[in-house]
Amino acid sequence: MGGSADLKTIVGYAGAALALENWAWQLQHGAEIPLPGKKPYNTESDLLKEVKSDVDAGIAKNNGKPPQILIIGALGRCGRGAIDLCVAAGIPESNISKWDLAETSAKDGPYPEIRESDIFINCIYLDKPIPKFVTADFLKEDPSNRKLSVVCDVSCDTTNPHNPIPFCNKPTYFDKPTITLPGFSPPLSYITIDHLPSLLPREASEAFSNALLPSLLELPNASTAPVWQKARKLFQEKLATLPSTQGHANDS
Question: In angstroms, rounded to a whole number, what is the distance separating the alpha carbons of residues 74 and 113?
Fold first, then answer.
C-alpha cells in the first residue's frame, strides 16, 4: 500500500484483507463457525503477515487453487487499495478481475461473473440508481455454478434504496465481521463494515493528517486561501437555513 496511501485506499485494502481471511476461514471451518472478531493491527505489516498466512492455508485446503476475485470500482482509490492487498497477499493478477464503468455499462446486471467468482469486492461510489450487481435470487437460480462465498461491500450502501447488492442490508462490525446468509450451501457471507480504516489506525491517522495538514497551514491566510473561503461560504449557506431567532449568534 505504501506510506502515501490515502483513506480511501486504506478502506479498500482493509476490506480486501477481511474478504480474503473470510474466504480462507470458510474453507477450514465451514458455515457453522463465523469469522472471529478482529482488533486493530499495530501496522500494515502485521495485518499482511496474518492475511498471507491465512490465504496460504486456504489455498492448501482448496487443492492449491487461489481464489478468483472480482472487484467492481477497480479504477478508483478504494479499488486500487483492494487490488494492492490481494497482490501483496500472493493472489496472482490473473485471478483478479478488475471491473469499472466500462464493464458494468456494457450490460445490465445481475452479473454471472460475480456468481462465478469466489470473492466479490464492491468499491463503487453510488450516487444514482444502477442495475443490481447480484441478488440472492440470482445466486439461487444456478446453484451448481455458484462459486461465490464471500462478498465484501466496501461501499457500505446498506440503507440506500439503490443498493446494487440488496442482500447486503445490515452493517457488520469488527467484533462480528460477517453475516452468513441462510439457505446457501456452500456458505455465503458478507462484510459491510463502514469504519474499515480503524483496522489500521496508524496508517489511517497518518493519511488523515497528510490530507489535513496543507489546509491547516493555510489557516493564517483564511481570508484569501481557497479552501477556507469555500469552508466559510458553506458555513454561511448552512447558517442561512437555520430558523431566525432573537439574538442569534453570527459568524463574525
Answer: 15
DSSP string, 149-209: -EEEETT--TT-TT-SSTT--S--BTTB--EEPTT-SS--EEE--TTGGGGSHHHHHHHHH
Q: What does the alpha-carbon distance between residue 133 and residue 128 come to, in Å, rounded to a whole number? A: 14
Read off the pTM. 0.89
pLDDT at position 143, please?
87
DSSP-assigned letter for residue 243: P
Those residues with Cβ within 8 angstroms of residue 83's Cβ, 6 or more apart along the chain or in another chain: 12, 16, 71, 74, 96, 98
Q: Per residue in 149-181, pLDDT tens?
A: 999 999 999 999 999 999 999 999 999 999 999
CA–CA gap between residue 91 and residue 96 (Å, rounded): 8
Q: How many helices (H) and strands (E) does the chain have?
A: 8, 6
Pull the grid cell for residue 185: 450451501
Q: Give per-10-residue mean pLDDT for the chain (252 aa).
A: 77 98 94 92 97 98 97 96 97 97 94 97 94 95 92 95 96 97 91 97 94 94 94 94 68 50
CA dihedral 63, 81, 145, 104 (to 10 degrees): -160
Q: Yes or no: say if 69 and 118 are a contact pair by the CB < 8 Å rule.
A: yes
For 4, residues 6+ apart whose C-beta sits below 8 A from its C-beta are 210
Give the Cα separation of 233 and 26 in Å (integer): 51
